[in-house]
Structure formats: C-alpha cells, structure tokens
Amino acid sequence: MLRAVKEAIKRHDLIESGSHLLMAVSGGADSVALLHVFSRLAESFNFRLTVCHVNHGLRGADSDRDAAFVEQLAGDLGMPVVVGRRDVGSAAKAAGVSIEMAARDARLGFFREQLESLDAVAVVTAHHADDQAETVLLRLLRGTGIDGLGGMRVRSEVDGVTLLRPLLQVTREQVLNYLDSQGLSWCEDDSNRDTDMLRNRVRHDLLPLLDKDYAEGIRSRLASLADVVQADSEWLGILSEDMLRSVTDADGCLAVDGFSDWPLAARRRVVRAWLRVQRVPSTRVGQELTDRVVELAMRRSGTGEVSVGDDRCVQRRHQHLRVVESMEAVPEWSVELAVPGVCVVDAMGFKVEATIAIGIVRDAPEGVGVLPARASISLRTLGNRALQIRSWRAGDRLLPMGMTGSRKLQDVFTDAHIQAEARSGVPVIVCEDEVVYLAGYRVARGWEVQEGEEAIQLRITDQSS
Fold it and tell me: What is the pLDDT of residue 9?
C-alpha cells in the first residue's frame, strides 16, 4: 500500500514540495490508513499535514466519539487537527435534500474555510478502488454520461475545493491488511451498514451478488472501466476546451452561430465547459441543464432564458448566451427610429438599419425574433409620422399581410414557443402604437410595398454584427 501511494503521487504529480495539505479523516479504517501512510511519506516528499474532521452531528455520542478519536490520533502522530461541527440533519431538512447530499455540502464548506484560513492547497481523501467501483455502478443505475462513468478522479476540483485521492488503485482488502500490519485501530460507523441508503445497498447487497453469480471480480472491472473512460474523457475535454475558446468573446459570452454544424456531443461538452467557466456549481451541471442550454442555443428564436440556480440564468440575446442575474420581469422599452439611419438598442443587444430604396426585400422569415431580420415597409403609408422600435405590450395585435383578421402577438409568441420572460427581447416596429412589423414574422396589412415603389428597408441584426 505504501508503494502504491508513492506511485500515485509521482505518476500524477499530485503534490508539490513544500505543500500544506488537509487530511480528511473520519476515523474509519480507510482514512486512518491513509493518514498513517502520509505521516510516513511527509518528510521524503516534503509536505505539511493538518488533520481535518467534520462532526456531522447525526449519531449523537458516537459522532462525538469519532471526533475525539481523530483528535487523539492526530496528537499521537504529532499533527495539528481542526474539527468542525455541522448540524447536517437540520441542513438537509431546510434545503429539502438527502442527508448524504447535505453531509457532502457540509464537508466541502468546511474544507473551503480551512483551506483558506490555514493556507493549504488541497484536501486528501481516502477513497479507494472499491469506492470507485461503487461510484461507477451507482452512476450507471441513476443515469449518467461518459464523464460519470469515469467515476472519481485522482485530482479534481469540486465547488472550489481541490481533492486528491491517492488510494484509487488500492483495494479495501489492501487497506485492512495495512492496518493489521501496523497494529492500527479505527472507529466503526454503524451508519455504513444502513441499507436504507442506496450506496450501502450497492456495497453490501448488489456488488456481492454480481461478484458471486454474474461477474467475478466485478469491482476491479468497474474500476478499470473508470480508468479507460477517464483517459477518453480527458482527450475529449481538451478538444472541447479548444472549441470553447473559438466561440467565446472577451466578455465570456458564448456565440451560438454555427452550433448546428457541430455534433450533439460537441455541443454538450462545450456548453458544460462554458457553464463551469461561468462558475455554475458542478453539482448543477447535469444532463438536464446541459440539454436545456443546448436547446436554447439551437432555438430558431433568438431570445430566451434557462435558470441555473442561485438567482442566475443563462440568457440568450440573439446569437449570444451569457450568464446573468435572473430578472423577474424585463421593463418595457421604446426607441424612435431614424429613417434613414442606424439605431442601436444597447439594452437588448441589437441594432436597426433603416434605408430608403426602391424595391422589396423578399427574405423568407426565419422565425419570430430570429435575427438578422429584414423587411420592406411602405414609405407612402408612413407619411410624416415616425416609427418606433419597442418591446411588445399586452393587447398588441398585428394584421398580418397575406392573412385575414388580426392576431394577438401573445398568440404568435405562444405558437413560436417563445417563453414569457423572453418576449420583451423580440423587436416590434410600431407607428403610433399600430404594430407595423414583428421581427422574423410578418409586415402588417396596409404597410406592404408595391413593385417599383420607394420603401423603407429595415435590417435588424445582433449588435455585434
């Protein structure tokens, strides 16, 4: 086991000389063995250690016993120790999450605090090969993608915490053999046998059944699968980072023009990478959120929003995505158009070019709100009046050219699957509050242009175009 940990540190270049590390020690067999091994390697690798323990407050006196055991163990090894207490039960109830999720969040929060206050660089955890097998199988049962099948990484960044896992090539059996050889004791956590928890059922019921009746050595096979997938995932990650750089501007906005030319897997990977850059917590960047953002990028309509939690959302304004603070409602806006002239609507991220020329623009509409959008409007009908570009308002109606009757803009938006919060971003051209043109849709009856007649040629584009 000592040799395996040395090889992991060297192979993955895990620890720089002079580093200060936090050792996550629960008091169980795995973390006790890990701490003992690292205490023997500290001098040769030149790193400093601080023992870190989180008392979740879930098992009463037993939780306090584990904390006292860890403090005694650290003292026996001559190491500093920090112990944090968190009321995980109350936190889980308040947040409406499982005990396991609340405990994980509590640990990460405490680790972040200690990394900063103690000027440490990473947290070392005792996850081993058997844990890896359980993780891969659990993710498979719950549903996952390629990255999920890669299981845990030897080094990873989770919500601002650098985690090192040097035991991923070490089995539980090797851990127990090491403890026995060194005469070390540890604390048993009765909750690890509670089969109400899915991970414990996988550990104590499913994996033994698979190993006995279906696939002997299933744990090592699952761990090997994780290694293979991690290598493939690392390569794909490099490719997606290159693609992300090619479509990200200086402000961190993601250009979606051309997304449809990419394979679906590339779109998903680029979106996930971009969300991480935008500091969306990794626990939220799952398949559902990824696919919703991809759909937003691929939508024919150029506006929309997808919530990413923490009162933030991915907002699409025509050909760009950005992460912004969520807004309950977009205020109404209105700008007068110069004819001829150029009008830039900074708040909405688009501009309007109006020229006067003979002829009709015959571009087929691409979809409501999709830019660029062009239309020809009768100069004769306008006369001495002015045109405005504004957001839609409740009660707005359009008499679409080529159709009978009128249509509520609200119904047009509904048919085009434009969400309510995105509708204020669709340009509406009006004259004295009469809707003349809805961008990407139709010109109103009575504003059509005759062949050979002088007309107002409108071109609405993304502001960056």
Answer: 95
Beta strands across the sheet bearing 434-438: 334-336, 388-390, 428-431, 434-438
Name every residue whose Cβ is closer than 8 Å to that of residue 242 and which is 6 or more positions away in sequence: none
Residue 195 has pLDDT above 70, yes or no: yes
Q: Give the Cα separation of 39 and 47 in Å (integer).
A: 10
Answer whether residue 330 shows pLDDT above 80: no
Q: Which amino acid is at 347?
A: A
Structure-block tokens of residue 316: 């699409």
Q: Are 20 and 47 within 8 A, CB to CB?
A: yes
Q: What pTM was computed for the model? A: 0.66
**CA geometry: angle 76, 77, 78, nearest 5 deg:** 95
- Mean pLDDT lowest among 12-21, 152-161, 275-284, 424-433: 275-284
CA atoms within 13 A on the CB side of 298: 15
Residue 226's DSSP bridge partners are none
Location of structure tokens 């601002």:
160
